[in-house]
Amino acid sequence: MVKRESSVLAAAIGGILLPRHFSTLTRGGVVEVPNFLSSGQTNALRRDIKQLRDLGEFEASGLRNNSEQDGPIEAYGESDRLVRIITPDLGGDIMARTEFDDILESLRAELSSSLGRTLSCAEQYYSIYGPGSYLACHMDERHEDTKGDRGWESRSRRSVSWLVYLSEEDWEIPGGAGSGGNFRGYVRSECQTAARCGSHEGDLQVGWLARAEGDEPVFLDSWVQSKATPEVDSSVKGGDVLWRPLSQLYCTSFTGNRDAVSPAFSSDSESWPVPADGVGFTANELQAAFAAQLHVPLRGLFSATDSVFHRDDLDLEEDGKQPDDPWGSQRVVDVSPSGGKLVLFDSVAVPHEVLPVASGERFAVAGWFHERQQSFPEWFGT
């Protein structure tokens, strides 16, 4: 238990994470912490997963592959992973999970303090990936205005995604427990501004601007206060003056102030397009819709947060870039699922996937730290 005792001592003295880890998180990178759990803790949780599977607690995730920006929606079928949401009434090795929850709580408190976010441990689940299982590229969280009818329903949102691998120690060793199943994240070059990715004053990030000094986060403010009159809003009765919300895209300056990169707009604006199917935007259509709101010189520099330029069927060059990346600013981060390793990233900023497992079974526990959803302004509805 040497590693476990060392991690407890480190948490008591100076914390689990290093300053560079927090910088990586706020710049939209992927944090990798080996030996976050001891081998004993990792083995106990892996035994818990296997026991719960034997008891019939796991089931296929039931997710569908809707990650391709304009491609077909297909069921994963036999390539689906097995999952079990961890709930208070779950049986199995409660003691092992309680010990892990204590470690997770220390991590949550440290992230809350260092990132300035009031975080809660809101979601947690076990997963098993068998041979051929994978998870296609996706985002863990999006701006509420991009969710259609599901927008603004929840009181909290995913803020920081976390993943702890529970595979055997000999994973990826020839003749070992298994291979493949890497986490793959798509991250941007760091922009040397005051901006932190993910969110700013409650407004979530929806894209990036390719700047000479690196990619800069673009945020969407959905609550720009504007007067509504019968001339601009048919729902307003004659003589009444009400407030109506408009939207605006912005970046943040070196001083931390907002730098508007679009005029205020709404779905009624002439610049806002109509979805091709008349119902909802595809990912590519939504990216084009946001780009069309930007000031003209910036439109060709915009890409959505979920834009991925690298594909599995293309060989990466030595510098990790692909010729189909228009700005050469995106790079791939692959993380091998070694037992006890922690992975962290901002839920809003990092598209990611799990590559197919080549052999063996890949075990993990994962979840999200939540923060409160942005509140409606007091003037809304008045």
Largest sheet: 7 strands, antiparallel
Q: Total number of β-strand segments?
A: 21
By secondary-structure content and strand pairing, the structural class works out as alpha+beta
Strand order of the largest sheet: 1-18-8-21-6-5-2
Proportion in helices: 10-25%
Given as residue ranges, the uncertain stretches (5+ residues, pLDDT < 50) are 1-14, 65-74
Gross geometry: globular
Distance between the termini: 60 Å
Query: Total number of helical segments?
Result: 5
Summarize model confidence as the mean pLDDT. Answer: 86
| Oligomeric description of these chains | single chain
- Percent of residues in beta strands: 25-35%
What would you report as the Rg, rounded to the nearest angstrom?
Answer: 22 Å
H/E element sequence: HHEHEEEEHEEEEEEEEEEHEEEEEE
Write up what this structure looks like.
The chain is of the alpha+beta class and 382 residues long. 18% of the residues lie in helices and 30% in strands. Strand 3 and strand 4 form a beta hairpin. Helix 3 (39-54) packs across helix 4. The longest helix has 22 residues, at 94-115. It is globular and about 65 Å long. The relative contact order is 0.23. Mean pLDDT is 86; it is low at 1-14 and 65-74.
List keywords for this structure.
single chain; 382 residues; alpha+beta; globular
List the helices and strands and how they pair.
Layout: H1 2-13, H2 19-26, E1 31-33, H3 39-54, E2 59-60, E3 64-65, E4 74-75, E5 82-85, H4 94-115, E6 120-129, E7 135-138, E8 156-165, E9 179-180, E10 183-188, E11 199-200, E12 203-211, E13 214-228, E14 242-252, E15 258-260, H5 283-293, E16 302-304, E17 330-335, E18 342-346, E19 352-354, E20 357-359, E21 362-372
Antiparallel strand pairs: 1-18, 2-5, 3-4, 5-6, 6-21, 7-19, 8-18, 8-21, 9-20, 10-17, 10-19, 11-12, 12-13, 12-16, 13-14, 14-15
Helix pairs in contact: 3-4
